[in-house]
UniProtKB/TrEMBL annotation, chain A:
Belongs to the ThiG family. Catalyzes the rearrangement of 1-deoxy-D-xylulose 5-phosphate (DXP) to produce the thiazole phosphate moiety of thiamine. Sulfur is provided by the thiocarboxylate moiety of the carrier protein ThiS. In vitro, sulfur can be provided by H(2)S. It catalyses: [ThiS sulfur-carrier protein]-C-terminal-Gly-aminoethanethioate + 2-iminoacetate + 1-deoxy-D-xylulose 5-phosphate = [ThiS sulfur-carrier protein]-C-terminal Gly-Gly + 2-[(2R,5Z)-2-carboxy-4-methylthiazol-5(2H)-ylidene]ethyl phosphate + 2 H2O + H(+). This is Thiazole synthase. HAMAP family: ThiG. The active site is at residue 95. It comes from Notoacmeibacter ruber. The lineage of its organism: Bacteria, Pseudomonadati, Pseudomonadota, Alphaproteobacteria, Hyphomicrobiales. Its main location: cytoplasm. PANTHER family: THIAZOLE SYNTHASE. Pfam families: ThiG (PF05690). It is an enzyme of class 2 (transferase). Residues 6-248 form the Thiazole synthase ThiG domain. Its EC number is 2.8.1.10.
UniProtKB/TrEMBL annotation, chain B:
The gene is thiS. InterPro entries: Beta-grasp_dom_sf, Mopterin_synth/thiamin_S_b, Thi_S, ThiS/MoaD-like. NCBIfam families: thiS. PANTHER family: SULFUR CARRIER PROTEIN THIS. Gene3D superfamilies: 3.10.20.30. This is Sulfur carrier protein ThiS. Pfam families: ThiS. It comes from Notoacmeibacter ruber. SUPFAM superfamilies: MoaD/ThiS (SSF54285). The lineage of its organism: Bacteria, Pseudomonadati, Pseudomonadota, Alphaproteobacteria, Hyphomicrobiales.
Length: 255, 65
């Protein structure tokens, strides 16, 4: 069982909590997929106290929360947000996002490494939202990260795994580091593919929350992730260019 | 004094951050605070004085991906 900073989730599906049609649908989706880890955020609290009601719902789900620094564009902003999240959510975990470009929400990987180093030295357990770049991955590990979360595709695009070669290379270079594909998943087959590549988990949000039937899609994602994981462990056949008959040729009748 | 709280102008009487949260009805709520971009832990709010023009962020749990 893969350990994420000492926690071994039964489910390899990490689920975001945003964009659901209602709190009830979010709750049903988390329960249907038997999710153990959900992502949350911090936003300005209004007079209606919506944040308190949301957190009551999350606490009732009995899951681990992974607070994010979504929307942060600089090191200082991300580090400050992480500190605020640690106090509110009472966890050293942080999904560290330092965004570098607005159209793709591509991580600012240089700022990410710096923020990860600062937070790691301060006792945070950092889940960095990164690209599949091997050099940056190495620097994140050197900065103290014990998990890497490369994107599959830009957040919310549902394009699947844009750079399968890069993701495979990352897996190959860091066989013992827990790796999570984070973002870009649209279909259960995308999630299954990530697991077939040897990834340890998949983090997604829009693919479930934005589906016509979020609860049904949550179940589908959970099953796909389990199927992909079992397939990987079962040592699949290598692809070949030429046909190889599966039925024995020996003994075939001469008609 | 004039403060910017969560991006909105406020005329507040409170002299420190803890008092401001009470004045704005945040007392008892689970929130995190920052003053002029710097995190202020809960147990330091009472000892954090406010000045005219300060920018305060009051954040709470929210859905996220």
């Amino acid at each position: 069982m893969t350990s994420f900073y000492g926690f071994e989730p039964a489910s390899r599906l990490f689920l975001g909590t945003s964009q659901y049609p209602s709190p009830k649908v979010l709750e049903d989706a988390v329960r249907a997929a038997k999710v153990d880890i959900v992502t949350v955020s911090l936003r300005r609290e209004g007079a209606d106290g919506a944040g308190q009601a949301f957190f009551d719902l999350i606490k009732a789900l009995d899951v681990r929360v992974l607070p994010n620094t979504a929307g942060c564009h600089g090191v200082k902003e991300a580090v400050t947000t992480a500190h605020m999240a640690r106090e509110v959510f009472g966890t050293p975990w942080v999904k560290l996002e330092v965004i570098g470009e607005n159209d793709t929400l591509c991580p600012d990987v240089i700022g990410l490494v710096e923020a990860a180093r600062i937070l790691g030295e301060d006792g945070f357990e950092v889940f960095p939202y990164c690209t599949e770049d091997l050099v940056i991955a190495e620097k994140l590990l050197s900065a103290g990260c014990k998990v890497l979360m490369p994107w599959g595709a830009p957040i919310g695009t549902a394009r699947g795994l844009n750079n399968e070669y890069g993701l495979r290379s990352l897996r190959g270079h860091f066989p013992d580091v827990p790796l999570v594909v984070d973002a870009g998943i649209g279909l259960p087959s995308h999630a299954a593919r990530a697991m077939e590549l040897g990834y340890d988990a998949v983090l997604l949000n829009s693919a479930v929350a934005g589906a016509g039937d979020p609860v049904g899609m949550a179940k589908a994602m959970a099953l796909a992730i389990e199927a992909g994981s079992l397939g990987r462990k079962a040592d699949p056949l290598d692809a070949r260019d030429m046909a190889v008959p599966s039925t024995p040729v020996f003994g075939k009748a001469m008609l | 004094m004039k403060l910017i709280v969560n991006g909105q102008q406020h005329e507040a009487a409170s002299q420190n951050l803890d008092a401001l949260l009470t004045e704005l009805d945040y007392a008892g709520r689970l929130v995190a605070t920052a003053l002029n971009g710097d995190f202020v832990p809960k147990d330091e709010r009472a000892a954090t004085p406010l000045a005219d023009g300060d920018k305060i962020e009051i954040l709470a749990p929210m859905k996220g991906g």
